[in-house]
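Structure ticket #2291
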Amino acid sequence: MSKSEINICKPSKEDANKIYELVKSTKVLDVNSEYLYLLQSTHFSDICSIATYEDKVIGFVSGYMIPNEPNTLFIWQVAVDSDFRGNDLARRLIMDIVQRKELNINYLHTTVSPSNNSSIRVFEKVVNHYETEMKSMKFFEASDFVNQHEEEVLYKIGPFKK
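Resolution: structure written out below.
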């Protein structure tokens, strides 16, 4: 398998069930309802990205534009199939969204649990690519969650020089 055989694009409604199964298979991400993944792959497809290999969804990034913060993309979930990790897919999926001219994204925000070093490294790669900066601050405490959940640190990346 080569990187050229992996297709990166916007999701469609037909991808929603595969996205749901991918997120569930990670065993570490919060699995949302199937309905949410249908909405993300239709209403929010412009700010989501999938990677496919043959007929399988092997990567997914979801996001939304932050209300009252023009040109700021919030990355919500990043999922990569365990068989395809190490192919720089997470960074490529994020950059696929950031580079969409119609969105005019200048900043990227995301939250990451402190123990999730691989996600932090992905965002550091985005920072290095765009030669910009990343600031972090506490955002959600463990006590903010009803169920057991690690705290979430907010990372603010940008501005992007495209």
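Closing remark: The chain has a mean pLDDT of 92.
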